[in-house]
Amino acid sequence: METTANRKEKGHALPALKQTHNIALSSNKRLYILYVALCLVSTGGTFVSLAAIQYSSSGAYRILFEQTELTEVCIGVALFSTAAVVFRLVRMAQNSVSNRLSLDMKRYFEHAVNDKLSSIRWDYYETHEANRDIFTVRTKSLQAVMRLLQSMISYLTAVPYIVIYSYYLFQINVPAVVAYVVLLVALNRIVGKRLNSLWKLWDEAQGYMRREGYFMGLAGDKDTHQEYRQNRLFGYISQKWSELFDREYKVSMEIHWRYEVRLQTARFILNLPYILMMLLTAYEIAIGKHEIGFLLLANRLFNNIVDTYMSVQNAAMVNQTESKYLELFAEVMSYETAEAVPERYKETDIEARDVSFVYPQSQRKALGHLTVSIKYGEKIAIVGANGSGKTTFCNLLMGLTDRYDGLIAYGEDALDLGRSIACIMQDFAQYEMTVRENIEMGDVDRSFTDDEIVGLLEKVGLKGYVMSLAQGIDTPLGQLDKGIELSKGQWQRLAIARLLANPKATVWILDEPTAYLDPMSEIGFYDLIYQLSGSRTVIFISHRLGFARRADRILVFEDGRIAEEGTHEELLGQNGIYADMYASQTEWYTH
Length: 591
What we know:
about 600 residues, alpha/beta, Rossmann fold, 4 domains, 17 helices, elongated
């Protein structure tokens, strides 16, 4: 498994543009082609606009001096107006198609990312670089695709614009036109370098603003507000925020002052070619080379040239900054995919033989030469200090990775248990969906009747509460859709109902599911699990031992190995690690 480290700030534009093109084609080929065609056709509106300016102003001049008939000029103006309306309709169609294409690309992109992330190997989430890249792709890459699409359109439409501008420019003095273009490009590059020098200051200000936003959010964040109020943190946090704001203010004022001075200087410098060309055009009109309307055309023409040039230049800058996000997207999409979880349900023993495992970014073995057997139907308690290897062992049992040494065998083969395993993790998901949907996710391959949902709620002691709600099992939970909030204990009971939703699961794994409960509530939780588990194999993981005395066997983990093994009474008699841990926690469960 490889990820990109020490990545450059700028990516490669051409591959990113090609990838954007492929995404657009895959999203909706016909709509994409139509959009590009409309963008190219709409450039004709610029030609019509320039010609209309010249025709109408020259016509007005000829009418004034009785060189032509009013009717003739009006007919021409009417024709130009009709053409302008047509191109306006083309632009409206272009905008409509653009919006639809954007939605199609969003759907295609997000579906591709979600589909990939749901199937990549677990190992990637244990690597800092991969985690960072995944976060960046989820938050930045779609926006980058949309910007790169507009860059492509800028490049494509620049071609007909160049033809249109050339048609009019070469009606002026050709050497002067060439000099104008060269001077415009040269001066723009000089001005660009001067303005770009402000980016370092801007990056510094952005750092301050991000931290300001963090401190501002503490008071309004649901998870931190209670502690914020209880510990009277306003003065302390406000001081932190004020210090950052003062730094940002100083840097921002320096940016604004420098930017304003440089911007006005840039405007003056960039207007020099324009002024010189307008003087030359006025001279050519004065000597009779052009009609008076050509002066107004030239004014619009030179402004359009600058606008098009700036659009292409901005597109090039976008390509440099945004293409790195497309490179990350391509990299994440190339991540290795885990094998699909087989639809297999087995009632079997589990045996780990000389299993060792090291996390991708660690030098220390999380598991070292671990060997253990678990009989089908056993209730196993795995205990030990944080970092002793408890969760790692269960992750391997669940088949999250096969990159370990040794063998985990189920019965007589090394195949994984597939969907035979159901689990509740320490930070189990609190899905902000309906009660029904929360339970259905325990087995997404079948449909549940209302009676089945209610039956599962009854088993976990939530039926009375849920059915008392106005929407019953269709009540939304959380804050996304005007839902209700459950207590931590109610969320845990709902997680158990989800566990029960897959009746074919033969192994339950519960990894610190009661970490947020008090010791006595923890005992009640485990009583419920014992009651509902039936003949299944159940593996409990915790560093709290109140439940362990009921287990058929206790495995004490230390430094990635099993240091002690036996029943509650047997381990107390050994006066070892377990006995010390239990003695230190006894008062939690006796008072």
